[in-house]
Amino acid sequence: MSQTMHFLGVPGRVADDISAFDWSSTSLGPPETWPPALVTTLRQVLATRQPMCFWWGDDLLQFYNDAYLPMLAGRETSALGQPFREYWADLWEGVEPFVQRAQAGEGTWMENLPLRILRNGVMQDSFWTFSYSPLYDDQGAIAGILNVVTETTSAVLDRQALQQAYLEAQKHLDERERHEDELKLLNRELAHRMKNTLAMVQSIVSQSLRGATSIPEAAKTIGGRIQTLAKAQDVLTGMSVTAAEITAIARTAVAPHVDGDDRISIVGPQVYLSAQQALGLSLAIHELATNATKYGALSRPEGRISVRWSKGEDNRFTFDWQESGGPPVTEPTRRGFGSRLTERVVSDLFQGQAAIRFEPTGVSFSLIGKLHNADDLDN
Q1: Considering all CA atoms of the chain, what is the largest pairwise distance in Å, rounded to the nearest integer?
Q2: How many C-alpha atoms does 222 have within 13 Å on its Cβ side?
Q3: What are the C-alpha distances in Å from 278 to residues 186, 192, 194, 340, 345?
Q4: Staple 292 to which of 298, 338, 375, 379, CB 3.0 to 4.6 Å?
Q5: Which DSSP symbol is given to 198?
Q6: 268 φ, ψ (degrees, to nearest 5)
Q7: Distances from the Cα of 101 to the Cαs of 37, 135, 363, in angstroms?
Q8: Which domains does the chain show, CATH number per domain?
Q9: Quick one: which of 197, 178, 278 has its CA closest to 235?
Q10: What is the pLDDT of residues 132-180, one digit of tens each?
């Protein structure tokens, strides 16, 4: 019978190491002087396949089983018989409260405790689920601490990765839902604009024919106005510039509706808009001009429109559209999609307030807001 089998009755690498270790140089003394409680505890720990270790005596000298060896990662050759506090100095601060409670006779349990631990010469983050329990000597006094432990680092990291993947997936779904909502809004706006475009083409043709002296002249006038309409649509559907001057935006948006030099007055200082604000204001002017052509000031030869804006301190911006000389105006019982879209989009883009008013003398639109800073002009 080998020395290991004779001393502990349990085979294994750690049992061999314990039998070969010079215990006489420690506070425990040689194995033949050990109390039965220590030997019994040691045999039980060595016989289990669950990672376990325990510390015994005033110095809390360390014992463990074969299943515990992987947790020593690069430190197993110097672990046996070492004082707990000295050997595990790198994580002592994190576990000391549990040690004190076990020495006071209280069992503890901790799940997924994060600890910085020295492994293979490198400090690493790790997670542990473990229990500390008091161990008793032959007289019933607390003589040590039993540690039943499972490393959960991989499980915790996998769960964190899974949670992150879930959050990313949820973010993607939220973005997809938001994009679908935007697509629905764009489809509604596109359908609305197509109807208005057809109405505008019809109005352009009828007005051009009414004022023309010959068919060739009418054809030329109609072709030019429809081409201008197409340019205005380009402004509304996308802008390639990083900053747009408001005068060009306003003139391009109203150009398809102008049938005389004095019909629309456009007055204001030089102001540059970000692409988003330019597109929004173009949409507003487009909707207003379309309404004026169909029902308002531009539906009558004597009708006029005044377009004005100003820029104040701290990028304060005002914009006004005022119609006059058109047919009598009454408040509609139901606001159209274009009116709602114009007020909402413009007020949001300019971080202010925008409103369409149906006054008896003519439709008016006013905006009070703020221009984007110079750094934002490419947005």
Answers
A1: 128
A2: 19
A3: 17, 20, 21, 18, 11
A4: 298
A5: H
A6: 170, 160
A7: 21, 12, 81
A8: 3-151 (3.30.450.20), 159-376 (3.30.565.10)
A9: 278
A10: 999 999 999 999 999 999 999 889 998 988 889 888 888 888 888 887 8
